[in-house]
Amino acid sequence: MPPLCFLLLLLLLLGSVSVHAGSAGKGSLSGPEINVTKRFSFPGFSPVGDPGVLHEVKLLGSAMLSAELGAVQIPDVSEGADLRHLAGRALYSFPVRLLDPVTNTPASFETSFSFQFKNDSSVVPEGDGSSTVGHGGSGLTFIMVPDEFTVGRSGPWLGMLNDACDQRYKAVGIEFDTRHNPQFGDPNDNHIGINLGSIVSAKTINASDLGIYLKDGFRHQARIRYDGEKRWMDIHLGSLGKELTLEPAFSGALDLSEFLEEYMFVGFSASTGNLTQIHNVFSWNFTSTSRAFLRMPSAESCEGKIILPSSTATGFAKRRPTSGFFIFVTVVVLILVVIASLFYLRKHKENKSSKAILVEKIKRPIPPNKPRQFTISEISSATRCFSEDEVLGSDSRGTFYRGKLPNGRQVAVKRFSPEFLNANGLDKRQMMKEINAISHVRHPNLVPVRGWCRHKGEIIVVYEFLPNGGLDKWLFGAGVLPWTRRLKIIKDAAEALSFLHLKKLAHKNMRTSSVLLDLTFRAVLGDFGLVLSGSESKRFEAAVSQAVDVFEFGVFILEVVAGRKRLDPDAPQNQIDLLDFMWRMHEVDEKAKAIDRRMGSFMNAEQAIRAMDIGLLCTLNESKGRPSMDQVTELLSMDVPIPELPLSRPMCLFPYSSTTGLCAGYSCAPLR
Ligand SMILES: *[C@@H]1O[C@H](CO)[C@@H](O)[C@H](O)[C@H]1NC(C)=O
Ligand SMILES: *[C@@H]1O[C@H](CO)[C@@H](O)[C@H](O)[C@H]1NC(C)=O
Ligand SMILES: *[C@@H]1O[C@H](CO)[C@@H](O)[C@H](O)[C@H]1NC(C)=O
Ligand SMILES: *[C@@H]1O[C@H](CO)[C@@H](O)[C@H](O)[C@H]1NC(C)=O
Ligand SMILES: *[C@@H]1O[C@H](CO)[C@@H](O)[C@H](O)[C@H]1NC(C)=O
C-alpha cells in the first residue's frame, strides 16, 4: 500500500497543478464582471388592495399595515391605547446586495418615499405641556440592516440600534428625527441625520433651514441618492404638492463601505418614547445596482486545506469555504478513480521497490474536518492563551472561547471548569469515551465536534464555530424573533434530539444557550452535557437521561413561545416560574396570554398554542406520560392530534433522577 500512496500523492500534485493552470489565465480572483440590480416599488401598502404586500413587507416589533390609509404604520395603533416606548420596523422581505466584497465598493442606490407624522389622537396632552405624556415621538429612519428579525430600542434609538456595544453590527440609517436628544448630539427636534453604525449622527441637517417642519402633519417626501463608485450622497426633501427642493438638503462625500455587508435588508424603523407619534409611510421606490465579479475557484485553497492542513496557510483562510469544498469533492472523486485504477494495475505488477521506505516518511493527507486530538499548545495559541477577549460565554460546566486554528478555521473551544471535572463521581476516562462517541455522530442539526484535548486534568472539546451564537441571545435580547423562525428552531432542535435518542445517546444539557444558530439561522444543537453511550450497564441511566432531555425540551418550547427564561425574577409575582405559570394558564384555558406579545399580530396563535401543548406534554411529572422525542417531532409536524393533556398538572410523586439534581415535581427546587 505505501508505494500506492506515493503515486497517489504525485498524481494529486499533478492534478492540483493542472487545476491551477486552468484558472491562471483568468487572473487572481476575479472573473467576468456583471451588474447586480434590484428594483422595487410600493405605490401603496394596502394589504387588501394588494395582498402581495404582506409577502414583500416584513413587519417587526410594533408595526402594522393600515388598509384604511394604505400605509405602513409604526407603532402598531391596533395594539392598545398606550403607544409609548414602542419600536417597530417594516423591511423589504428580501436581502439586497449593497456591497461588493471583492472591491469593497458600496452599491449605488436611489430611494424615494412619502411619509407623514401624525399625533396620536387618543392622547390629550395634560395641562401646561410639562407633563411626560404628550405629542411628538422620536422619528422615522430609512435603514439598511444586516438581518430581518431584530428591532432596535425604542425612544431615541429609533428602533434602529440598541445600546449593546457590538462593533460588528453594521447598519446605515437616514433619520428624520422629531425629538431633541442632546445626549445624542441632536441639534433640535426637526432634523435629518446620517447614522453610520451609531445612533449619534455622523452628519445632521436642520430641516427648519429648508422651510420644512416634519411634525406639521403634512405628507413629506424624501429622496436619497448614493453613488457607490464616487462615494457621494444627495438627500432631497419636499412636502406634498411641492416639488422636492431644488437645493439638496445634503450633498457630500460619504463612504458607506465600512458600514455595509454584502447583503442587507432595507426599510424603515421608527419609535416612540415617553411622547408618542404615529409614523406613516405611504409609498416607497427603491433601486440599487452593484458590480460583481464571478469568482473562479482557486487551486491554492484546495492545497491549503487538503494536503497541508497544519501548515500556516493563513492567506487562504479568508476564501469562501464553498469553493474549497467543491475542489475537495473533485479531489476526492479523483482519488477514488486513482485508487481504483491503481488496484487494477497492481494485479499486473507486483513491484516492491525501495520506494516503500521513502513513503513511510511522507504524511498521509488528513481530511480537513476529521475530529482529532489537539495538543494544549495548539488550543492555547488558537484562543490566544484563553484570552478574556475570546470568551464567548460560560456556565457551571465551563467556559467557551472563540479560537482560530492555523488554517484559519474558526472554532468554539469548551474548557471544562475544574469544579465540574473534580465533582464527585465524574469518571474522566468515561467522559473522554463519550466525547469520542459524540465526535462521530453527524447530523445537520448537531454541531460537529472538531476535536478534543486532554492535558493534566484538563478536558477541552473543540466544536465548529457558529457565528450567530446561542439562541438565548436572540430570544431574550432586544430583538424579536418572528414566530415562523421560532417554530423552525423548535423543529430543528427536536430533530437533533430525536436523532441522538435513536442512537441511544442523550444530550443532557438541553437549554436555549445550547441551541446555536448558523449563518442561515438554522438551529444546531451543541454544548452537549455528557452523552451516555448505550453500553449494557448504562442502559438504565441512558433511559433516565433521555427522559430528562424530553422534560428540558418541553421547558425549551415554552421559553421559545413565551420569549422569556423559565425563571424570571422581574416577572410579576405569580409568573416568576414560567412552567408553573403556563400550567395555570392551561388550567383556565387562557394559554394565549402566555405567548410572547412582542411578536405582534402577524403571528399564528393557533400554531403557538399547539407548540405550547406539546411543551406541556413534555413536562408531565411522570416520565411515563411524556412523549418520546420521536413522537415530539411527529407532533410538531402538525398533522397528528395531540394526546389530551390532564386538566391540571399531577402532583410530584417521586423525584425520579438524583444524578442530575432534576426533580420533575411541581413544588420542587428550580432547575437553573
Ligand atoms: C454596470 O453599470 C455601470 C454603470 O451603470 C456601467 O458603466 C457598466 O458598463 C455596467 N456593466 C455591465 C457589465 O453591464
Ligand atoms: C415611485 O415611482 C413612480 C414611477 O416612477 C412615481 O410615479 C412615484 O411618484 C414614485 N414614488 C415616490 C414616493 O417617489
Ligand atoms: C420623559 O419626558 C420628560 C420631560 O418631557 C423627560 O424629562 C424625561 O427624561 C423623559 N424620559 C423618561 C424616561 O421619563
Ligand atoms: C435651525 O434652523 C432654524 C431656521 O433657520 C433656526 O431658527 C434654528 O436656530 C436652527 N437650529 C439650529 C440648532 O441650528
Ligand atoms: C401635534 O401635537 C403638537 C403638540 O401637542 C402640536 O404642536 C402639533 O401642532 C400637533 N400636530 C398636528 C398635526 O396636529
Describe the structure.
This protein has 672 residues and is of the alpha+beta class. The protein has 3 domains: 34-288, Jelly Rolls; 372-464, Phosphorylase Kinase, domain 1, CATH 3.30.200.20; 471-670, Transferase(Phosphotransferase) domain 1 (Transferase(Phosphotransferase), domain 1, Orthogonal Bundle), CATH 1.10.510.10. It is built from 14 helices and 26 strands. The strands form 5 sheets. Strands 1, 3, 4, 9, 14, 15, 16 and 18 form an 8-stranded antiparallel beta sheet that branches. Strands 2, 5, 6, 10, 11, 12, 13 and 17 form an 8-stranded antiparallel beta sheet that branches. A 6-stranded mixed beta sheet has the order 19-23-24-22-21-20, sandwiched between helices. Strand 25 (515-517) and strand 26 form a beta hairpin. The longest helix is centred in the middle third of the chain and has 28 residues, at 321-348. It is globular, with a radius of gyration of 29 Å. The two termini are 55 Å apart. Residues 1-28, 127-132, 306-321, 350-361, 531-536 and 652-672 have low confidence and may be disordered. It binds 2-acetamido-2-deoxy-beta-D-glucopyranose (NAG) (5 copies). Residues 187-188, 206, 208-209 line the site of one 2-acetamido-2-deoxy-beta-D-glucopyranose.
Concise description?
The protein has helices spanning 2-24, 52-56, 299-306, 321-348, 355-361, 376-382, 418-421, 428-439, 471-475, 483-502, 539-562, 578-587, 605-618, 629-636, and strands at 30-42, 57-61, 64-66, 71-74, 87-92, 96-97, 99-100, 105-106, 108-118, 139-145, 172-177, 191-196, 203-206, 220-227, 232-239, 250-253, 263-271, 278-295, 372-373, 391-395, 398-404, 410-416, 449-455, 458-464, 515-517, 523-525. It contains 14 helices and 26 strands.
